[in-house]
Design a protein that fits this description.
This protein has 435 residues and is of the alpha/beta class. It folds into 3 domains: 166 residues, NAD(P)-binding Rossmann-like Domain (Rossmann fold); 162 residues, Dihydrodipicolinate Reductase, domain 2 (2-Layer Sandwich), CATH 3.30.360.10; 83 residues, ACT domain (Alpha-Beta Plaits). It has 14 helices and 17 strands. Strands 7, 8, 9, 10, 11, 12, 13, 14, 15, 16 and 17 form an 11-stranded mixed β-sheet that branches. It has a 6-stranded parallel β-sheet with strand order 3-2-1-4-5-6, with helices on both faces. Helix 1 packs across helix 12, helix 4 packs parallel to helix 5 and helix 7 crosses helix 8. The longest helix is centred in the first third of the chain and has 18 residues. 46% of the residues are buried.
Length: 435
């Protein structure tokens, strides 16, 4: 059978890993695919010493790859949403299948990309766009296809998880750990995408679409970073039996879809609460099988390459099949996607961790408790710390039961007006993740 010719665009960390894995495991891959899969063309603006490209055509003009009539599958690994978008759309226009690890491209422009691919009868595969080497896309789209997915919750950014793990394990400050993460190569010089939740929101947008059969709607995802989390918050959470994680949550409710990324308290007994360092994990709750957890390396050259190559293999297997009988890009048939709305953050319901540094005088706790009670907010537990210095502010920590976010916002606004606070209220959402 005729070999499948692959063109790789981008020869950086993931591109080099993909090339090397395809070549190193060439025999096993061909046995699985039923035909040889060969890298015949590479588009890269500069050479990578980690890759021996002898015998492979290399072009500095990356569009030469998508215009090569001999290339069957284009692997886009340059990242970004400008040139990458043009390149992917051109590949589709030329009738080529596409494999990408580009979560920003899929989250922001996936609806357009998939519509073009469907019209042209080609595949766009993107397993590596979410959680690196963890096959979470395939698990939700195919392995759990018999289920109604109720919610998805994930630690899907390794940089943020590394920072929070170090803060917990070693009592370090956020800025101190961030500098180390940058030195180790876990965080970029500009870490905004990681620590402010944008990277995780791209990934969560994709997971929500596949889980619930809705169009990709990144612009409606709520994102909140971890820059304001203190080592005190991490320690108090631990004292209460919780861990602080930067969590992405997508949940179906009768009123719409929750789509949110923010710091979250999780009970320490949950498996996902014990995912440390740069590791990723995604938990899925569905009606038939219940809870399932997917854990592994969410980034890196060969872990991500593992997902890219698996996609290449999948595409190679279906090259000759009827396009209408392939697995839909977003798990559900394109004409059957739901128009269920994405809920604004004010409409979601969750429990809360509240921390306030308050003035050390009688009646303060009673005033705050009264405000919460008047707002229909029930207190689950309270920690009030004694201070050695009588003039020092008193840390007051509360856990509440579930309440709608807009009610919590209103209560916090009233607490701010009481003249009892030394610093502003710190609020962290809390998820039990038990059903």
């Amino acid at each position: 059978m005729k070999p499948v010719n692959v063109g790789i665009v981008g020869l950086g960390t993931v591109g080099s890993g993909t090339f090397n894995v395809l070549n190193r495991n060439r025999e096993d891959i061909s046995r699985r695919a039923g035909r040889e899969i060969l890298v015949t063309h590479i588009g890269a603006r500069r050479d990578n010493p980690a890759v021996n490209t002898a015998g492979v055509k290399v072009s500095r003009d990356i569009f030469a790859v998508v215009n090569d009539p001999e290339v069957d599958i284009v692997v886009e690994l340059i990242g970004g949403t400008t040139i990458a978008r043009d390149l992917v759309m051109k590949a589709i226009e030329n009738g080529k299948h596409v494999v990408t690890a580009n979560k920003a491209l899929i989250a922001q422009y996936g609806n357009e990309v998939f519509a073009a691919a469907q019209k042209k009868g080609v595949n766009v595969a993107f397993e590596a766009a979410v959680a690196g080497g963890i096959p979470i896309i395939k698990a939700i789209r195919e392995g759990l296809a018999a289920n109604r997915i109720e919610w998805v919750a994930g630690i899907i950014n390794g940089t943020g998880n590394f920072i929070l793990t170090e803060m917990r394990d070693k009592g370090r400050d956020f800025n101190d750990v961030l500098k180390e993460a940058q030195a180790l190569g876990y965080a970029e010089a500009d870490p905004t995408f990681d620590v402010e939740g944008i990277d995780a929101a791209h990934k969560l947008t994709i997971l929500a679409s596949i889980a619930f059969g809705i169009p990709l709607q990144f612009s409606k995802a709520y994102t909140e970073g971890i820059t304001k989390i203190t080592r005190e918050d991490v320690a108090y959470a631990e004292e209460l039996g919780y861990r602080v994680k930067h969590l992405g949550v997508a949940r179906q409710t009768p009123n719409g879809i929750e789509l949110r990324v923010h710091p979250t308290l999780i009970p320490e007994s949950r498996l996902i609460a014990n995912v440390h360092g740069v590791m990723n994990a995604v938990m899925v709750m569905s009606d038939a099988v219940g809870g399932t957890l997917y854990y592994g390396r969410g980034a890196g050259s060969e872990p991500t390459a593992s997902a890219v190559v698996a996609d290449v293999l999948d595409v190679a297997r279906v090259l000759t099949t009827d396009p209408t009988n392939r697995v839909p890009h977003l798990a559900f048939q394109p004409g059957r996607l739901s128009d269920k709305p994405i809920l604004p953050i004010e409409e979601i319901e969750t429990a809360y961790y509240l921390r306030m540094d308050v003035k050390d005088r009688p009646g303060v706790l009673a005033k705050i408790a009264t405000v919460l009670s008047e707002g229909d907010i029930n207190i689950e537990s309270i920690i009030q710390k004694d201070q050695a210095d009588d003039n020092a502010p008193v840390p007051l920590i509360m856990l509440t039961r579930k309440v709608q976010e807009k009610k919590m916002n209103a209560a916090i606004d009233k607490i701010r007006k009481l003249d009892v606070l030394v610093n502003d209220v710190t609020r962290i959402r809390l998820e039990m993740l038990d059903k």
